[in-house]
Amino acid sequence: MIRLATAVERWPIAGRFTISRGSRTEAVVVVAEVTDGTVTGRGECVPYARYGETVEGVRDLIAAQGDALAAGLTRTDLAARLPAGAARNALDCALWDLEAKRAGIPAHALAGIPAPKPVVTCYTLSLGSPEEMGAAARAAAARPLLKVKLGGAGDPERIAAVRRGAPDSRLVVDANEAWSAETIEANLAACARAGVQLIEQPLPADDDAALARIDRSIPICADESLHDRAGLDGLRDRYDAINIKLDKAGGLTEALLLAEAARARGLSIMVGCMLGTSLAMAPAMLLSGVAAFVDLDGPLLLARDREPGLRFDGSLVHPPEPALWG
C-alpha cells in the first residue's frame, strides 16, 4: 500500500529575484513523498500565484490524494483526477521516482527515451535598472547563455546594457507579459540589435493576438500562454516555440506528450522551471534532449540547494543521480 506525505519547504535565494510581477527572497516549494514502506519516491512543485495557486492550497490538494494512492491510484490516473498545475506535478514526479526505484531502472528508460546528457542551462539575470543589469551581466559574462528578465519601460536600455556587459554570451529575453502592442516593435528592435536569440512571452497571455501580425527576426516563445496540450492549437501564428514547465503541464507525464505534440506542429522547445531546488529540476532533465534551450538554473539562484543535488559545472548541468530522483 502506498503512503503519502507532504512538506512545505523554504529555500533562501542568493540575494533577490525580480521579474515584472515583483521580487522575492525565498523559494517556497511543496514536496510530495510516496512510499511502499521499502522504496520512496519524491516530487517537488512550486505553487504560483499567477495561476491562482497558493502554497497551502497546493499542499492540501496533494494531501487529499492519500486515500486514492493507498487504493491504487497510478500516475496514468492523475490527469483525470487533478488539473494541470503544481499539485499534479509533485505527485506525478514522485510516482515516476517510485516506479523507477521499484523497477531498478532509470526514469528515462521507463519513458522510453535516451538518457539525458549534460547540457548548458540559461543563467537568469533579474530585472533591475540598466546600470544594475549591466553590472550583473559583467559578473556573469563567462556564462555562455544568459536569460534576461525585462519589465516594460526602459527595456531597450536594459538589454543594451546587458549586451555591453556580456558581449560574448548568447541571450534569451523573458518579458513576463510586460510589453504591450504599442511597445513591442521598439522592444523587438532593441533585442535584435543586441543579438537576442529567443523572446519569451512578450505580451499578456489574454492579449497576445498582435503577435500574429508582427514581423520579427527573433523567435517568440509561449510561456504563460501555454500550459498543456489543450492550449497548443491556440498558439497558431502567434508563437514559434513553447516553454515547457512541469509545474504548468502538471508533471513529467504530460510534459513528454506536450513536447511530442509541439514538435509535430513545428514548434521549438524550451524546457524551463519555476524557482526551486534540484529536486524540481531533475525530472525536467528528461526533456533536455529535445530542447533548443534549457532553462533549469533554479538551484544556481539559491543560497543553498538540497543534498544531494544536481551537479553544475558553471552553466553545464548534469543528469540527476538516483539518490536525488529517478
UniProtKB/TrEMBL annotation:
Binds 1 Mg(2+) ion per subunit. InterPro entries: DgoD-like, Dipeptide_epimerase, Enolase-like_C_sf, Enolase-like_N, Enolase_C-like, Mandelate_racemase_C, Mandelate_racemase_N_dom. GO terms for molecular function: metal ion binding; racemase and epimerase activity, acting on amino acids and derivatives. Keywords: Isomerase, Magnesium, Metal-binding. The keyword Oxidoreductase does not apply. Pfam families: MR_MLE_C, MR_MLE_N. Its EC number is 5.1.1.-. It is an enzyme of class 5 (isomerase). The keyword Disulfide bond does not apply. Its cofactor is Mg(2+). Gene3D superfamilies: Enolase-like C-terminal domain (3.20.20.120), Enolase-like, N-terminal domain (3.30.390.10). The active site is at residues 149, 245. Residues 130-221 form the Mandelate racemase/muconate lactonizing enzyme C-terminal domain. Mg(2+) binds at residues 174, 200, 223. Belongs to the mandelate racemase/muconate lactonizing enzyme family. This is Dipeptide epimerase. It comes from Methylobacterium variabile. The lineage of its organism: Bacteria, Pseudomonadati, Pseudomonadota, Alphaproteobacteria, Hyphomicrobiales.
